[in-house]
TrEMBL record:
Residues 106-130 are annotated as: Disordered. It comes from the Eukaryota. It comes from Ambispora gerdemannii. This is 11296_t:CDS:1.
Length: 463
């Protein structure tokens, strides 16, 4: 573009002049050339003086929010002066950062995706941008994000058995599902061991847990007023969920780390490329982390809130995204522990629990074919403030026992991953074909956040 030309973008009405649209429609690759063309076009139109500065600044207002992190929260007027100085040759913070950004692989991938997105949009084809290779089933809009084969992998792949409650557990839950507090109190003092036998912790622990959960909630149900009116998050943790979740895992070799515990799997992922001189980054913090005793392996996480705003609430959406990223890191950690062997990785699962006030939802994350991460949200269950058959506590306990079964299955896979099939290992055919290890697969990684331009510039100055 010569000095006297005007870009075709400015043939539209001046009310539609917007720098963000201009940057999208410009064919120039470098950010510097795009801004240079924008400024020269305004100068050729004849915009000068105070009116010119006002008109130039208006389109920048919509673009200012995106440029603040890149410019270190500088004033818009100073930004305009720096943009106009692009025509001269100097090594300033903006020009240097632009050159650095232009060569970064993630920015090149972003430009490629944007180009494909525009092409698909012009033809009417669906196109969705994902930051992670994670696919959730929380809504029905995810069916257009990949090929038919990949979508079949997500919706139909079942390479693991779904855990089911034992018959004795189901029968006890049915017995305790009553709508009278006095009747429940009588039942709780009766023996829950089948056929009146002797209690064995290794066999009847889950029955004891169910009995304990109902006895813990009985104190709240005996109150005249609804116990769940205007309570804080800590109150629910102490009086509800500490009776319903924590005791269920006491017979496993699993620690439920409470109190904003840091995820070690998340920390390991963030420090994969750490050098000896770099500061170690901490992992994501959750309201609970299921961790193997005396180890770093993690099998699930918990996020909680003081109230329930529905699945469209900001708190729910934020915590759901946060916990899914944590579970993705845990799943990758377990896959690495299994040496990414395909027959083991496909069976791995981790669980998450989202509970706001007196409601809970269980999330399961797995790798159906080894690469695409599948996230499944189960139904939201409620702990009723009154003893009732319409919203029985049995449904909540069923979800918790379901999560426990998944963790138990995954823990068994980790404990038995090094077992050797002696019959095949010592078979005569192995002498001819040799010993074959299990086939490995590639597991998708969680991308790191894009570094800020200011950090990149400061790093270059230090060098």
């Amino acid at each position: 573009m010569s000095d006297n030309q005007i870009h075709e973008f400015f043939k539209r009405k001046s009310a539609k002049w917007n720098i963000s649209d201009f940057l999208d429609e410009s064919n120039d690759e470098q950010f510097k050339k795009k801004i240079d063309a924008y400024i020269k076009s305004l100068e050729n139109i004849g915009i000068n003086g105070v009116a010119g500065n006002l008109l130039v600044s208006l389109p920048f207002k919509t673009f200012r929010r995106a440029t603040k992190p890149m410019l270190g929260h500088r004033r818009t007027s100073r930004f305009l002066s720096d943009v106009q100085d692009f025509s001269s040759t100097h090594i300033g913070p903006i020009e240097a950062s632009g050159e650095l950004l232009d060569t970064r692989p993630d920015r090149q991938e972003a430009r490629t995706w944007r180009k494909k997105h525009k092409e698909r949009k012009s033809t009417g084809e669906p196109s969705v941008h994902l930051h992670h290779t994670e696919i959730g089933t929380i809504n029905g809009d995810t069916g257009d994000i990949s090929t038919i084969e990949e979508w079949k992998e997500i919706t139909t792949s079942e390479v693991k058995d779904k855990p089911k409650l034992e018959h004795s557990l189901v029968e006890l839950l049915k017995i305790y599902t009553v709508d009278n507090v006095e009747r429940l109190q009588e039942i709780l003092f009766e023996s829950f061991v089948p056929d009146g036998g002797k209690y064995d912790r290794n066999i009847y622990y889950d029955l004891n847990f169910i009995n304990y959960a109902y006895r813990g909630m009985l104190f709240l149900w005996e109150r005249k007023e609804n116990p769940f009116i205007e309570r804080l998050e800590g109150w629910y943790e102490m009086n509800v969920w500490s009776h319903l979740i924590d005791p269920a895992f006491h017979n496993l070799n699993i620690d439920l780390v409470r109190g904003e515990g840091m995820s070690l799997a998340s920390s390991d992922r963030k420090n994969l490329e750490r050098t000896i001189h770099a500061r170690k980054k901490i992992g994501r913090k959750g309201d609970g982390v299921f961790r193997l005793c005396m180890d770093r392996l993690e099998f699930g996480a918990i996020e909680s809130g003081r109230k329930w705003e529905g699945q469209s609430g900001t708190k729910y959406m934020t915590d759901s995204l946060k916990i899914c990223k944590m579970l993705k890191d845990m799943l990758n950690q377990l896959a690495t522990e299994c040496d990414t062997r395909e027959n083991l990785v496909r069976k791995l699962q981790v669980v998450g629990m989202l509970h706001g006030a007196n409601r809970i939802q269980v999330i399961t994350v797995d790798l159906p074919k080894g690469y695409v991460t599948r996230i499944q949200h189960r139904k939201v269950r409620e702990v009723a403030g009154r003893l009732t058959k319409s919203k029985p506590l049995a449904l909540v306990l069923k979800e918790i026992l379901y999560a426990k079964s998944i963790i138990t299955q995954t823990l068994d896979i980790i404990n038995n991953k090094d077992d050797v099939d002696l019959e095949n290992f010592l078979d005569d055919s192995d002498e001819q074909d040799g010993y074959h290890t299990s086939r490995t697969i590639a597991v998708s990684k969680t991308f790191m956040k894009t570094g800020r331009t200011k950090d990149v510039v400061n790093e270059k100055k230090r060098q």
